[in-house]
Amino acid sequence: MPQSSITPPNLFSYRKYWAHRFGVAPQLPMSRAEMDELGWDSCDIIIVSGDAYVDHPSFGMALIGRMLEAQGFRVGMIAQPDWKSAKDFQKLGRPNLFFGITSGNMDSMVNHYTSDKKIRSNDAYTPNGEASKRPDRATSVYSHRCREAFKDVPIIIGGIEASLRRIAHYDYWSDTVKKSVLLDSKADLLLFGNAERAIVDVAHRLAKGEKIQDIKFMRGTAHFVKEIPADFAVKDSTDFDKPGAIAPPINPYQEEPPCDKSDAENADEIKVAPLIQSIKTLREKTAIRLPAYETVKNDPIFYAHASRVMHGETNPYNARPLIQKHGDREVWINPPPIPLSTPEMDGVFDLPYSRLPHKSYGGANVPAFEMIQHSVNIMRGCFGGCSFCSITEHEGRIIQSRSEDSIIQEIEAIRDTSPAFTGHISDLGGPTANMYRLACKDKAIESACRKLSCVYPGICPNLNTDHSSLIKLYRRARGLKGIKKIFIASGLRYDLAVESPEYVKELVTHHVGGYLKIAPEHTEKNVLSRMMKPGMGTYDRFKKMFDDFSKEAGKEQYLIPYFIAAHPGTTDEDMLQLALWLKRNNFRADQVQAFLPSPMSIATAMYHSGKDSLKKVNRQAENISIPKSVKQRRLQKAFLRYHDPKNWDLLRQALKEMGRADLIGNGKHHLIPSYQPKGFESPVKTQTFKTKYTDFGKGSTLKNRRSR
Asked: Whole-prediction pTM value?
């Protein structure tokens, strides 16, 4: 039966494994002594993670571990093991079913290095913020050590690092295209996205005696195939996305009208009703062959093409399997998992988390935990489709929301059990704060749509933008006894917010703590179009609402805008115009963000190919500006901090070369002064990209703190 025709079983409908009789662990064990206390002679599943073990649903290892425990399995944790030998990987013994491996909530390379490839000085997911507690490319390293420790135990990789490296991908740190991490890690199975459905199904199948090599063609997984199944047709990706003539599309990747009812039928212009189901069935049994690893490795144009095709197959309701040859091996990437229902989401977040770091850390501070311990995740997914962000590739674009009751119960649990709680909830949000319960108005349209964004180039007319459910949630939450203040710290999609003035008023009046961070990202249209972000007119509308409602509430509050330097398509002139906008509006940025090409993102394909991959590309296509050199990236960041005397020497030189020496002087209309303060005579040095939650959205599963 075709995959999309199957309603997946409820996550909590499986018959529990026999080991459920051991009960619920206060915290999942990290030592043999803890296993003995629980009465365990062995673990059924051992999760290995690059993060410290924090038993909180915002930490992927804890969520998956508790999910498997709820199925009856005994789950052990090996957190931040010493990867220089196999010893640490043996400390819990041989798992009965499999090792589950993740680099942690962040891609290990993003965790280790800034956008300028400088080593970060701390790690928010490690006790006391200590750096270098996980290796580069942790998923592969841990996988090899597990194989060394227990040669015959199945190895399943997952998490953000595996998810974004499931196909051949550009690796910024080595400036090469690397193979699928499935090959580099030598794992048996790769799970991508939010993997609850796949991990639960795999665990039960292995427990029944199936071999890992026989578990194939499951949604949300990637694996090797020796041959293409006989019941699948194979279509070459270049048949329908030839690198050919360039034409500005209405919707990125799809030279077709906006989705509507006819898209839902989508029968290749055949409108005969009896044929529709058979055509859909044929589509579900068609796999798309991407250019081989050896091709995309050596040809950036074909890399951009493969990226375009892959991103077009991200809707779980119409995505087709992808095949990519790596030497003599075939990697088969199945369609994404079916999103969780609200009852399933509630079940996942209602599991018995202790909501604390593991007791073995004593009084050590885990910075990431300190940031989110009093926050509540209300949804997952994002339909924004920003080209520089990887949230959609990992969590999907279909919003999965918890029920209001489940969220309220978690707030009450925080209030009643957290020893550090002072009455303040630090966030009610997710990847995007105000997408709670927003969805396509028509399920048939949603199932057929291949647009990557529901809000670019404008808000889709089929999108429900009603914020009433979120407003109701806010009002109920802040009315709880013992709750003094609820802040909204997750990313706010302000182009959606302006569609609901009532929501903006609610937010500004009750849930802003003096400052609200939002992210226009840039001011110039050509850059914003390649980011797939709205124009500054929308920002101006939101700012007016924000100011008016703040005044009405009698509050002095300010917007703090975030911007990105060195994004593909950004020229020095674009950054100059942005700097002038900042000066006109009296903004002085404290933090500087530079584009980081994370694996699998659309903007990374632009960075690597030098072409605008939002359009079909060929070798004759116009090249776009790609700020790659250290000097140019430093200059573009300097424009964002035009007010910093350390940058003035560099900016004076650049402005003269750009023919804009008129902006050098000591008047209000000048960008930078002609003098240099004492102590700032030396040339500017490269500024380190600060490790903040503001950059986690590009390669992290922790809730995105950065306004979108």
From this structure: 0.90
